[in-house]
Amino acid sequence: MFDIVIVGGGGAALVAAIEAAALGKSVLVLSKHYPTQSQTSMAQGGINAALYPPDSCDSHIQDTLKAAAGLAQETIVQEVCRAAPKAIEWLDSIGMPFSRKGEAIAQRRLGGASHPRACYAQDYTGLKLLHTLYDNAVKLGVAFRFRTFLLNVIEEDGVCKGVSILDMARGKVEQILAKAVILATGGYAKMYGALSTNGFGSFGEGVAAAMRAGAKLSDLEFVQFHPTALKKSSILISEAARGAGARLIDQEGQEIGGELWTRDRLSRAIFEAMEEGREIFLDMRHLGEEFIEKNLPQERKLALLYEGIDPIKEPLPIRPVAHYTMGGIDVDEHMQSSIQGLYAVGECANAKLHGANRLGGNSLLELVVLGKKAAQSAAQRQQPPQKKLFERTKIDANFIKAVFTLPNQIDFWERQEFLSKIMYHNCGIVREEMRLKGVLSVVRQHQKELAFMGVRDKSPLMNKELISFLEYGNMVELAEAVLVGAIQRTESRGAHFRADYPQRDDEKFLAHTMIWKEKGVLCADFKPV
Amino acid sequence: MKIKIKRFHPHFEPPSIDMEYAVQETATLLDALLQIKRQKDRTLTFDYMCRSGVCGSCAVRVDGKEVLACQHTPKDGEYIEPLSVVDVIRDLSVRLEDALVTLERSKAYPLDMQKIAMSEEDERRIERQSDCILCSSCFSSCPVYASNEAFLGPFALSRVWRYVADKREQAKKEHIDAVVQNGIWDCTLCGNCTEVCPQGIDPKNDIMMLQSKAVQFGYQNPNLGGFGSFGLEF
Questions:
Q1: Domain boundaries in chain A?
Q2: Which of A19, A67, A239, A266 is the most buried (most CB within 10 A)?
């Protein structure tokens, strides 16, 4: 049996694994794909740290708190921002190839930051960070199991005993027991389907599994929309472009402005301009070929492939799409969820660092600083679970068998595409009560109809249609929770904007939205900050 | 437009067949595969994640040449196969474990990093190698595996060079020691890997760099061993 089981293979998971191994703990990483195929690979802009004056940790703290619109916890923001320079030093010491300016680590300015604060590696920051972490995990001999899909968290009497998983290549349900479990399964922004920058992985199975096990979730309605994704493909064009001077214009060439605003505000401005029938473009022609090739090579390549447009010659058509989920599994200052022995870190968790709106460059920072912390906390757990076949595992094995016999009268993929679209248009950048309630009733209908869906591919072996169906199931479950949060928060704050309640209301809503399930029923409440 | 796909399922008889699908034109091969899966054949199995060329999960062979499905524009009549050298699990989905283990065997990780300032130029020397996405295209294209299964292979060796060339890394000899067996001298320098790399990395050149570093550490190219001893004495 392992001391610590980590679910997920991205940056947060690997930092936790490296730290757990360094603490002498036996650790197993369960990843859905191969670890370097995680969402972290798509992070481009950078990782924040106040390294040189005139920037300071205090300034970093202030910027983070300001963007968070009252929903960040000051102590955690202070802790993470103050640990940031050390985090960069640690990454440098394990081989991270940060871009340099002279002999110093180079920094760029992202939206909402008072100074150039994001350390980067071209526009491959996440990719290079992830691979550096993977190399170090390999060096430490961390045990991995690839292509394992999380089904459920095994919980008894409020204590986590392990997880049940589907071994994808064999089609077998298994239980993996451990003294502690760390969920690092990523966010759920792919709930918005083609209108999300995320890859085909961010369906939130960790968040959904934690909810089913009885863990509390918080602030789920705070979904960040990134202002500049390519219009046809939703491929992200990093904030680095705007930080370097790229401008937002409409089809007449008229300036939109606000290039360095925080993402919530700018996404709304662009969305509103688009609602007026204007087309919005990101113009970086004046930055010149040399600059773009050196700093944004990936983005030029993707713009050419997907839009057939060379940003050196023409402005790029863009629109805001779902990018990051601030909410998630509610954790305390030790990264522990409301279930003993179940920890969560990274995008799947809500450590209250980002509050109502995340700053670019703070998520990679979070996974480094809090990934270590999660491992340190999990390493304290001494009590191994009883060795037995848990009821949860039996139920899950039967469930997977049963999925193959479902009647397939309704195509889940069509349903998923439809739900993604209506989520974007009604529970997206601008929200309003009647529309949210309309989507909620659709979601509840989808939930009832799950039993009439199913899979057409009947092979147990590497059945990716089955995985997609399970992801859709998680998405439907989480969409309900997101909608309930969005409906009951009758105010506007950060990324959550209600057209019918456009003002921030600190008297009633300076509070975290808490969501959990009791005997399968969704419960919601507010917890004052 | 029609594309042909090599299908594989170990439980079927025969396990492998070619199937042709009509698809609407798409920007990428990945879009075409998704179109087939959603609209025509739910059993078609392939891997994908980021759809933007950074996660390295969707490498396949098109008319014998490795490409990322999400970065390749499909054309009529193309033949799609899984990567070679690695084991196929089902259709285009392969076991990358066989490839990834070369990273461990070649010690393609930092061994002894010191706190040393790097200049822009120092960083540029490892920039291209550290763009690697571990898609295994180069691994699949490498002809050495036909004769030597234990070969460390292009991406692992490129990654070793990335650490040897890193100014902060001190244990350069230990890196070289790890790649002289089944490594740098077994490469035929054919350049297939360089040709197929979606990130423009040049493993062939990196292997040559490792070879010259090895010579500096006193290793000799065993393939050249004979030249000095033709028996001719002057």
A1: 2-222+324-378, 227-319, 391-514
A2: A239
